[in-house]
Design brief:
Blueprint lengths: L1 H34 L3 H8 L7 H20 L5 E2 L5 E2 L8 H6 L7 H11 L9 H19 L1 H17 L5 H14 L13 H11 L4 H9 L4 H6 L1 H5 L5 H32 L28 H29 L3 H20 L5 H7 L3 H4 L4 E4 L2 E4 H27 L3 H9 L1
Length: about 425
């Protein structure tokens, strides 16, 4: 029976997956051009840098790029004003945009042309001098967590040790501080390589905040039970050997199997799209704290382990959504009603994301895994410190089981009533 269910839903699943993947690909591609425009320059810049003095060199190069930027745009250093003298007069920073656009009439056409020509010259760090300052600003933003990793751990270790020495510290806080200390001391604060981080950062942020996959589940699950109710199949299945109970369980498991296959392929495609931006894969072995979105995490995990954790918790999140849509399909009198209701439910995370709503409940509804492990998110249960990420995993798993059980119970009760038989008969 399970195999028959999988075969009957396979075409619809493939169609839904291809549709959603095309939308997601356009969503990723539209952002990649801007977000990763400096990736090649990033790889080139870090290729010959030693880890131990990389951040100091980066700060010096960023300072040089800033000085050159102001020399070109404000001081006009090197510009011949026509009298044989170089123009070194300093102007206000507010005039920079006006110079570039040509809208500030206090600058001559020669000055504006000189700035644009100077910007087009080959840069020290990026393709052109005009991009040097933007590139170095990007590098400082991307690699500050890498350069300050040791300072971060030292500061938090000292803070926790101070808390433990205080007599006023609550027992609960002492448990958390002790747990954090053990974690912080295990973090590798001196990575042996300087990895390209922007590609991993970009794609993992996209994957963590990807709500488009939810609509694959909407299309997959809307007819899980509602379509069979409309056709009268559920009413007739009660007289067959397999029985109603087995049908409900197999139908649910069949769609979970299809969802799992779709999720694995979807995650693999994300990884394949990220592949050109992984460099030599060395970034996967670096501390997760080198990623800007995870720089305040106290967990001694690598980027590769973080990817696996992200994949696992997001799976449990989408499993919960799948079981919820199965319950909606069971309670809906028609597959189009199920589609509409599931669509409304599916758009809620997107609304929360666009409105930038905050709070633990909101983060759980969003399935925002990063928020559970990007800082010291630790709780105490029965005298034991437990990561919030583990708690949320258990919550998602429990919610999935609850929705699955409710679907089963509602199906048994609903299709043993007069209303259930009459609906099937009329349909």
């Amino acid at each position: 029976m399970l195999w028959c269910i999988l075969r009957s839903c396979l075409f619809r699943s493939i169609f839904a997956f291809v549709l959603i993947f095309m939308i997601t690909f356009l969503y990723i591609y539209s952002g990649t051009q801007e977000e990763l425009k400096f990736f090649n320059q990033q790889e080139k810049y870090i290729s010959d840098k030693a880890p131990q003095d990389f951040f100091e060199q980066l700060k010096a190069d960023e300072d040089t790029a800033r000085t050159d930027f102001y020399d070109i745009h404000i001081n006009h250093k090197g510009l011949d004003d026509g009298s044989g003298n170089n123009n070194t007069d300093s102007d206000n920073e507010e005039d920079i945009i006006s110079i570039l656009s040509g809208g500030n009439k206090t600058y001559s056409d020669a000055a504006i042309l000189w700035v644009k020509l100077k910007e087009a010259e080959p840069g020290k760090y990026a393709a052109t001098m005009g991009e040097d300052f933007d590139f170095m600003s990007f590098m400082m933003s991307a690699y500050t967590p890498y350069g300050t990793l040791s300072d971060f751990t030292d500061e938090h270790i000292a803070a926790n040790e101070k808390m433990l020495k205080r007599t006023s510290t609550l027992d609960k806080d002492k448990i958390i501080c002790t747990y954090e200390l053990n974690l912080l001391k295990k973090i590798n604060v001196s990575p042996s390589i300087v990895p390209p981080v922007s590609g991993v950062e970009y794609f993992l942020k996209r994957f963590n905040g990807d709500y488009i996959f939810t609509f694959f589940l909407v299309l997959l699950c809307c007819g899980m039970f509602a379509a069979h109710r409309r056709s009268g199949y559920i009413n007739s299945i009660k007289t067959m050997k397999c029985g109603l109970k087995k049908f409900i369980v197999n139908q649910s498991f069949g769609h979970i199997i299809l969802f799992t296959a779709g999720y694995c392929i979807y995650s693999l495609l994300y990884f394949l799209l990220m592949l050109p931006y992984l460099g030599d894969f060395s970034v996967l072995g670096c501390p997760v704290q080198v990623l800007p979105q995870m720089q305040f995490s106290v967990y001694p995990i690598t980027v590769g382990k973080y990817m696996l954790i992200l994949f696992g918790i997001k799976y449990l999140y989408f499993l919960t959504v799948t079981c919820l849509f199965g319950l909606i399909s069971m309670l809906s009198p028609h597959d189009m009603v199920s589609l509409a209701v599931s669509g409304v439910v599916g758009i809620i995370p997107l609304i929360f994301s666009l409105t930038e709503a905050k709070g633990n409940f909101t983060e759980a509804v969003l399935g925002n895994v990063t928020s559970f492990i990007d800082r010291s998110d630790i709780s105490v249960f029965f005298g034991t410190a437990i990561p919030i990420a583990a708690v949320m995993s258990a919550v998602y798993l429990a919610a999935s089981a609850a929705f699955f059980l409710l679907t089963y119970i509602c199906g048994i009760i609903q299709f043993r009533t007069v209303r259930g038989r009459s609906v099937s008969t009329v349909a």
